[in-house]
Amino acid sequence: MSFFSPMMLFFVVFPFLSFFVFGMAGTLLFRKHGLWSMPLTVLCLLVIFMFCIDSAAPDFIVWLISFPLLTLLAAGVTLWIKSLY
Length: 85
What we know:
It is a single chain. This protein is mainly alpha-helical. 85% of the residues lie in helices and 0% in strands. It has helices at 6-29, 34-54, 58-84.
């Protein structure tokens, strides 16, 4: 697998994007709807990626569930920490 292959980018770059950019920064940017809109954005991106690259392999369904949950967790923790200060 080369360094710039789509699957390498998916397993290395997308989890960090999902957690930090969509989960934390997206929640702070979209204050009113950040908690539910950011996991929905990640889910839509994963569905697009699934149909373009992986064509709905059974192993991909695990990532389809776990990345939006990771984003929802990051958004919830971000809102909780923000409410403390």
